[in-house]
């Protein structure tokens, strides 16, 4: 599945930034968790309650490469004005491929919790960094690289 | 025109174009205020988030005739769920209209005007209860203002009461019809200042006093379904479609078809590009002066096909493929706690696998549509769940502007999601265009419908549990494998979408220390469509069967075990579980409430007499499921005789859907869910060989009949009179727990565990 390539570059920077952080991994988990909840809510909002629209948007969002290619890459699903729907698909793509990356981020966050409880700080940090990267990819939450959140 | 022509009460003709009979007034003039939620930075949930949002202007939904007749326009599609009645009840109640003087008009597809019209997702009342209340209240306010002006009194001295406005101090009263003209000249009041009724004042909402508004027409044959519109000079068409998804025509005998008396023309319909979305499947259409001739002409075509890439699709081998995928790790889509450690530390492990086949929607009315084109404008009459989608895609296919396409929505003889896809309507438009705009009716036979559907996904589910000494799970692994609905929208997606996983996988509310869900890959070989309850069907079957299996393994009562697994009362934000869909609703307004889930389980269990002594061959089963932001539990009693014959003496189903608008319809939906679920449990499946659907009609795609239906269905509605609380869905949430309740009961009765659907002959072995 294609990804938002520009976002991935930003995520790589975060991975590098992770180890310099001063806060404990437990603190970082809490910080990231709040942002992940927000990202999840935005993902819900970009999908919609209708099954047809949800299926179309989520599927198309996962195919999207970047903003400019919305109309050309993916045939717009005819649920509304073409421009509006293209914008909706773009938003869904920013919502972590229609939510797919947010689901992954939740999974990594729980992995981080497991490592934190086991006292494995390095593994915890790595998992948190992956969560941050996925949130950043989603384009839904501002992540402060300096502070790791 | 024949007598039946334009008996459709379609607002585009009656209200706007020709008026609603003599002296009818839209309650106000001018364009409706833009009522859609602002283009916001904040997330938009529910109706706010749907394409074209919602409207609540009385200008759109209420018209009052000078004789007092109130015409309510409904923009949602009626497919037996009673939405035309329920929407009208809401408006009429706030309007203070006399129900006996309320009529219904059906809106054409025009979302710019009416707001979102996709009738899917169990959300017509959930999304439009408040907008319709406001529409009714605004109209009532305008009538009251008109009366106050007439009497030169303060508006707060007058009050609408059952179709009249009264001024109690003077004893004066004016009927709605008398006030209609003056009211129509008033400005629509701001929604913020509207006085909505208190629940204690409701006449119709929440009561059982209103029957289906279409009942008389349905039972006397006057109701107009997709197949009913008739026009002078109309042609009739059937289409020979490729037997394999993605197949193409290679040759056919046009002369032989044209030789059939009544056949007028043969038209080839282009095979669609992939992904097909809602495009017709292509093939060869036979257009005739009557349907029978068209069908005979189709037989004479002797079409030869090139099957394409799905010509080897075989359900048996595909099941093995899904099973193999389910036995390997897949993409992790939900994780909590350390499952590996939980499994390693378990006293023992338990695993089970479940298979759910493709299903066909099989509405009693197969798809049908009529189209005609005059002066560059296309009109269609169709049983559509998605008239706006139909309009836009039809315009695109015909090369006209959407404004030049009118979609008249007929009644639907069942829908279940099939009629959200407008391929059959586009066929009618294409064929009318081929006939220079003459009206053409496309008829799908039952066989056409069963063999060329948008099928419910086929699915394999594997669950593993690490159990502690008491038999409770320390952790659960759930792998769900199924081709995705996304495959009709994008090329070759291999994994289920978040919204599909949000139907019971990423939001299951069990109280577990460790849980992991994985989503291995599965390609699609047919058109996968949304079908009533969608992915909740396989997920609920697998999860609720597995819990029952664990209970029996532990020697525990299944109901008590289920309740214990749900755990303590708590309200969870679904995002905390990892759900990124939540049926499109605000997760703070719609948390998952385990107390509500447990309550429906207790109510269903109490209803069926859970724990009573059962004679040999009889058993009780229970299952629950949260879906469409409602809570449902089903308790079933089954009897399996010595020959393996299954009967279902009784089913109790309990639903908590929040505040109830039309309890009679909720009961009806629950009863329908039970009946449909019985079919899924016992007989329903679509299988493929060489890419071709094996089943073709009700002789081999068997749906419940009188002899297999439960003898008794008891519906328990959890009361809620707090209309400030959000409404839940009703049309779909009843279905998912039905099948596992039945199969769990079968285990209780026989010790035979059903893991592959349908049951078929499994009990006879």
Break the fold down into its secondary structure elements and pairings.
The complex is a heterodimer of chains A (149) and B (765).
Chain A: H1 5-17, H2 25-47, H3 51-63, H4 70-73, H5 82-94, H6 100-117, H7 121-138
Helix pairs in contact in A: 1-7, 2-6, 2-7, 3-5, 6-7
Chain B: H1 11-17, E1 24-26, H2 46-49, H3 58-61, E2 62-65, E3 70-74, H4 83-95, E4 102-106, H5 111-114, H6 124-151, E5 158-161, E6 164-167, E7 172-175, H7 176-184, H8 215-219, E8 235-240, E9 248-251, H9 254-258, E10 263-269, E11 283-288, H10 291-301, E12 304-306, H11 315-326, E13 331-336, H12 339-344, E14 348-356, E15 368-374, E16 377-382, H13 387-398, E17 405-409, H14 423-434, E18 440-443, H15 446-451, E19 459-467, E20 473-481, H16 498-501, E21 514-519, H17 536-554, H18 558-566, E22 571-572, H19 574-577, E23 592-593, H20 594-608, E24 618-627, E25 630-640, E26 646-656, H21 663-682, E27 688-689, E28 692-693, E29 712-717, H22 738-750
Parallel strand pairs in B: 3-4, 8-18, 16-17, 20-21, 26-29
Antiparallel strand pairs in B: 1-2, 2-3, 5-6, 6-7, 8-11, 9-12, 10-11, 13-21, 14-19, 15-16, 15-18, 19-20, 22-23, 24-25, 25-26, 27-28
């Amino acid at each position: 599945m294609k990804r938002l390539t520009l976002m991935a570059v930003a995520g790589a920077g975060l991975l590098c930034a992770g180890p310099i952080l001063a806060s404990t991994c437990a603190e970082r988990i809490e910080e990231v968790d709040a942002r992940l909840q927000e990202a999840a809510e935005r993902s819900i909002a970009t999908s919609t309650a209708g099954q047809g629209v949800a299926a179309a948007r989520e599927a198309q969002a996962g195919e999207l490469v970047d903003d400019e290619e919305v109309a050309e890459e993916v045939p717009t699903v005819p649920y509304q004005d073409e421009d509006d729907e293209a914008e909706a698909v773009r938003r869904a793509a920013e919502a972590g491929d229609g939510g797919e990356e947010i689901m992954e981020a939740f999974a990594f966050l729980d992995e981080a919790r497991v490592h934190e409880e086991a006292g494995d700080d390095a593994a915890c940090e790595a998992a948190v960094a992956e969560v941050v990267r996925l949130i950043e990819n989603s384009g839904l939450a501002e992540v402060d690289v300096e502070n790791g959140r | 025109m024949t007598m039946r022509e334009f008996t459709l009460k379609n607002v585009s003709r009656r209200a706007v174009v020709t008026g609603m009979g003599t002296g009818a007034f839209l309650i106000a003039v001018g364009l409706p205020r833009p009522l859609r939620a602002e283009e916001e930075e904040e997330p938009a949930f529910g109706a706010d988030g749907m394409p074209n949002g919602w409207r609540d202007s009385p200008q759109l939904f209420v018209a009052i005739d000078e004789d007092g007749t109130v015409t309510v326009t409904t923009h949602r599609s009626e497919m037996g769920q009673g939405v035309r009645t329920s929407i009208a009840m809401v408006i009429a109640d706030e309007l203070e209209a006399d129900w006996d003087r309320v009529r219904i008009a059906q809106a054409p597809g025009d979302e710019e005007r009416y707001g979102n019209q996709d009738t899917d997702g169990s959300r017509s009342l959930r999304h439009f209860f408040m907008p319709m209340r406001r529409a009714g209240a605004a109209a009532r306010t305008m009538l009251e203002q008109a009366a106050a002006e007439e009497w030169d009194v303060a508006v707060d001295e007058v009050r609408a009461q059952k179709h009249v406005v009264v001024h109690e101090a003077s004893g004066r009263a004016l009927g709605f019809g008398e006030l209609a003209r003056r009211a129509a000249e008033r400005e629509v009041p701001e929604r913020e200042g509207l006085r909505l009724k208190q629940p204690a004042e409701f006449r119709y909402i929440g009561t059982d006093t209103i029957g289906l508004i279409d009942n008389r027409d349905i039972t006397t044959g006057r109701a107009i379904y997709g197949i009913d519109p008739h026009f002078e000079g109309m042609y009739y068409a059937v289409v020979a479609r490729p037997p394999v998804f993605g197949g193409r025509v290679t040759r056919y005998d046009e002369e032989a078809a044209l030789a059939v008396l009544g056949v007028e023309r043969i038209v080839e319909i282009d095979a669609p590009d992939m992904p097909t979305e809602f495009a017709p499947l292509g093939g060869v259409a036979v257009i005739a002066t009557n349907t029978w001739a068209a069908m005979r002409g189709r037989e004479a075509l002797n079409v030869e096909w090139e099957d394409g890439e799905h010509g080897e699709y075989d359900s048996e081998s595909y099941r093995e493929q899904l099973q193999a995928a389910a036995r390997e790790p897949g993409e992790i889509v939900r994780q909590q706690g350390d499952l590996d450690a939980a499994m390693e530390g378990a006293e023992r492990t338990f695993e089970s696998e479940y298979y759910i086949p493709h299903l066909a929607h099989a509405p009693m009315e197969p798809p049908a549509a009529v189209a005609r084109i005059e002066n560059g404008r296309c009109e269609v009459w169709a049983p559509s769940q998605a008239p706006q989608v139909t309009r836009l895609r039809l315009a695109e296919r015909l090369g006209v502007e959407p404004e030049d396409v009118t979609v008249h929505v007929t009644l639907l003889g069942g829908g279940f999601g099939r009629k959200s896809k407008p391929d059959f309507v586009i066929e009618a438009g294409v064929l009318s265009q081929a006939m220079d705009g003459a009206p053409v009716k496309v008829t799908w036979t039952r066989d056409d419908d069963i063999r060329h559907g948008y099928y419910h996904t086929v699915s394999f589910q594997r669950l593993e549990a690490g159990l502690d000494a008491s038999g409770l799970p320390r952790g659960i692994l759930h792998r769900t494998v199924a081709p995705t609905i996304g495959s009709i929208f994008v090329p070759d997606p291999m994994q289920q979408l978040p919204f599909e996983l949000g139907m019971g996988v990423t939001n299951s509310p069990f109280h577990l220390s460790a849980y992991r869900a994985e989503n291995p890959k599965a390609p699609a070989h047919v058109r996968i469509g949304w079908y009533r309850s969608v992915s909740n069907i396989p997920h609920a079957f697998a999860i609720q069967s597995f819990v029952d299996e664990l209970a029996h393994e532990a020697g525990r009562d299944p109901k008590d075990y289920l309740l214990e697994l749900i755990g303590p009362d708590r309200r969870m934000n679904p995002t905390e579980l990892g759900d990124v869909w939540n049926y499109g609703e605000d997760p703070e307004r719609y948390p998952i409430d385990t107390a509500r889930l447990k309550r429906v389980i207790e109510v269903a269990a109490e209803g069926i007499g859970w724990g009573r002594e059962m004679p040999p061959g009889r058993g009780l089963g229970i299952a629950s499921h949260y879906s469409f932001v409602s809570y449902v539990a089903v308790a079933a009693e089954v009897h399996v005789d010595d020959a393996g014959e299954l009967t279902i003496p009784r089913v109790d189903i309990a639903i908590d859907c929040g505040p109830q608008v039309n309890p009679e319809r909720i009961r009806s939906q629950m009863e329908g869910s039970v009946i449909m679920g019985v079919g899924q449990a016992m007989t329903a499946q679509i299988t493929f060989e060489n890419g071709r659907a094996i089943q073709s009609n009700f002789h081999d795609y068997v749906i419940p009949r009188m002899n297999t239906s439960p003898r008794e269905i008891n519906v328990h509605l959890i009361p809620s009179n707090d209309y400030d609380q959000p409404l839940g869905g009703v049309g779909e949430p009843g279905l998912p727990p039905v099948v596992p309740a039945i199969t769990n009961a079968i285990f209780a009765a026989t010790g035979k565990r059903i893991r592959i659907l349908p049951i078929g002959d499994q009990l006879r072995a």
